[in-house]
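Subject: Sanity check before I submit

Could someone independently write out the structure tokens for this chain? I want to compare against mine line by line before I put it in a report. The sequence has 359 residues.
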Amino acid sequence: MPKKLKLKFSDRLKYEYFYEAYLRAKKHKKYKREILSFDIDLETNLINLIEKIKKRTYHLGEYRKFIIYEPKKREILSLPYADRIVHQWYIGNFIKPYIMKRFIKDTYACLDNRGIHKASRVLQQYMRKMRNKYSKYYVVKCDISKFFYSVDLDILFEIMKRFIADEELLDFTKKMIYENTPFSVGIPIGNYTSQYFANIYMNELDQYVKHKLHIKYYVRYMDDFVLLVENKEEAVKVFKAIEKFLQEHLKLKLNPKSRYFPSKMGIDFCGYRIYEDYKLIRKRSIRKIKKKIVKWNNLYTDDNIDYHKVIVCWNAFLNHSSHADSYNLQNSLYKKIIFLDELKLEKNKSFSEYKTRDS
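---
Independent answer below. Compare away.
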């Protein structure tokens, strides 16, 4: 039983906390029409939000739906801007500082100073330790089938009740979980609260793996997780135990691709193929960037290229691939870009303009 959060809900119903949440919600979205409209009378709008929450007349708005196709088709739900400020306030004042810090050290999603690069780096360190100890070992690699759409709301609320003592905060948490949700089971992809609720939900598995199964080398990033064990027999035992725990306690099912295998095969995790002594970019990521380069070259030939979009996308790939052994890959891809000199000029020009605007 975790120690309950004793902070009172009313202690955080102050203008300064909502203003901080507003700044976080606005980050990287400054010029959208909805935000500009809210900004016209910012102080009044924030005070109105606070008063509604105090009087318990606040309700979540209607979701807007849109579809994305990367890496696969997903339905994203987006709340009005005012609700996104409330989500920022709720997570920033109650969840992140008090609940997230109770997680195990080897969960890496939605936590400051963690993320996919640290997760992949730590997993590789654990692989080396297992090699030094056992020479050969086994990997249990799992993820959850349709994770966000499978989170049971009643189980989630029961978990939150174990963390929260204040009745007002608990009532508001219930609103965040249940109100206006389009699902009887599942949480919306796109809500700021969803990624944190999902992490809290999966913390139940973390605690089981560490304190019941006593697995030393375990790494999780959201619903994707890896365990390193001594041999095949232990891998089979652990795999079955996790499958049973997920079904009985969280009503979750493992993706059919979940399996156990010898360590020599390497581990596909957090965008990389990880081995003890080196790390590679996933093949599908390489295919994807090659397709983009072909598209960019065609747009350049047709004199219809947006250099800013290319620079943002290319730099994102370079940043991701730089955490792997990718020197030769990067060089080979550079050579495929027919407008490389122009790209460098545009990058320097954009950077100069950016510095001028901010000075």
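---
OP: Matches mine. For the report I'm noting this point. Confidence is low (pLDDT under 50) at residues 350-359.
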